[in-house]
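S1.2 Input.
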Amino acid sequence: MGVFTDGSHEQVVFCQDRASGLKAIIGIYSTALGPALGGTRFYPYASEEEALHDVLDLSRGMAYKNALAGLDLGGGKAVIWGDPDQIKSEQLLRAYGRFVQSLGGRYYTACDVGTYVQDMDVVARETQFVTGRSVEYGGAGDSSILTAWGVFQGMRAAAEHRWGTPSLKGRRVGVAGLGKVGKYLVAHLVEDGAEVVATDVSPKALEWAQATYPQVSLVADATALITSDIDVYAPCALGGALNDDTVPALRAQIVAGAANNQLAHTGIEKLLLDRGILYAPDYLVNSGGVIQVADEIDGFNFDRAKLRATKIYDTTKRILQLADTEGISPATAADRLAEQRMAEVGRLRTIRI
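S1.3 Output.
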């Protein structure tokens, strides 16, 4: 995927500061609904092409996510190319903040894989266009909290659509990824009475799960989780979890997880539909985090943000019902609603006042 062959992004900016080692790409997919909002992913990509592909995919996903969440914000994303454990520094983060500031408010950044609220506090020393900051600096704190809450609400809606009840009690839920979001999701599932099976590539994450929730069963890897006897599959790590190999092997009836870009390529949504697997679109159910950081822009109120994230339940029900009525996949139904809002509300911004 290239910037011009993709043909849909408004702006893609390559940022480099040799002294700090910063190599970053900022992708702005759409500002139809407002300034583009999306996190900064700090990751050791294998190549520049891989980093570019990720930022284009992720920024597009953020536009659709923000639209479905009812936010007056467009979609953007940034990636910093490199190993955060090796090169992350105050100098690098502040250099990145300067590049964000240079966009003049077209893009608001926040946390993502490899970046944390403390990092956003450093970035904010160079730009006003940053959210997802720590409570000490007037921010909302960890956005993973409401991300997990929203995923749980989407999962409840999918359960009601499939089984007639919004409870996960007695259901076997497989969680792939026990990171920032997965650990909170496990807590909601355990509290709801679900039987949780989980995995993670990090031994520390597995140790945490075993110590915190001894009732959670652990399996060796994602393949073992996918092929196990589960009712719900919750991918909560990196994207591409649903592909030509995993979908045919999947035994779950529902997929609802926190990972972005779960569908490896176009056509996977049809494969899920043909197999009778109910897919709750990722950018719908994982929008609790962006709802939280967006609320911070106007002065954060946790109760207000949580109430908005709880509405993911209603939106998920609406999309699943629309998919059934029109005989289309939930992913297609979600895209249609997002595109409709971007077109209709975005048009109003052209009216001179």
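S1.4 Remarks. The two ends are 39 Å apart (CA to CA).
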